[in-house]
Amino acid sequence: MSSQLNLANVITISRILLIPVFLVLLLGGMPEPYGDIAAAAVFILAAATDKLDGYVARRSKQITTLGQFLDPLADKLLIAAALIALVSQGRIAAWVAMLIIGREVAVSVLRIVGVSQGVSIPADKYGKLKTVLQIVYVVYVLVPTDKIAEFIHVSTDVATVIQWILAGVVVIVTLASGVRYFMNARGVIRMPGSPPR
């Protein structure tokens, strides 16, 4: 286990540990807009560690099984925590969160089945695009609408429409990337209950 716990994996674990900090800032009742802005800053910091741990792992040649498992798990936990918290505040429609989280759970189960069979299915460019769009969407929702409207010089109604358009794009790309993930697994992973090849 000690050989698995390198700098890259410590950075990944720090991303998971930032999740409760993010939730406390978002849900802790801080005066507005400071709570939302602080939560957005922590969320961006946590999301940024995703690139950092991958860079460190490749540069130091410390890619481990633990890291390959924890990295996507940390991403999914961060996004799911943010979506559930924002749904509880009435700032994201429940169906948007359910579709996104449902896709992540399905892909995670597929990955676990693959690992149990010694098969790894890496994320493709669509999976990476999905993650970037989800992060952008969450940050957009976190920052108060009036502040966004002021920053991009539009009315608050336009800023709200942009949020719905962004939600639609995120859902479509998320589901499409999930379908591609399962298509890539065909012929590679033997699903439980199916006859051995």
Q: How are the elements arranged and paired?
A:
Blueprint: H1 7-27, H2 34-59, H3 65-88, H4 94-116, H5 125-142, H6 145-152, H7 156-185
Helix pairs in contact: 1-2, 1-3, 2-3, 2-5, 3-4, 3-5, 4-7, 5-7, 6-7
Could you explain how this protein is built, in words?
This protein has 197 residues and is mainly α. It has one domain: CDP-alcohol phosphotransferase transmembrane (TM) domain (Four Helix Bundle (Hemerythrin (Met), subunit A), Up-down Bundle). Helix content is 76%, strand content 0%. The chain has 7 helices and no strands. The chain has helices spanning 7-27, 34-59, 65-88, 94-116, 125-142, 145-152, 156-185. Helix 1 packs parallel to helix 3 (65-88), helix 2 packs antiparallel against helix 3 (65-88) and helix 3 (65-88) runs antiparallel to helix 4. The longest helix has 30 residues, at 156-185. The radius of gyration is 18 Å and the shape is globular. The two termini are 33 Å apart.
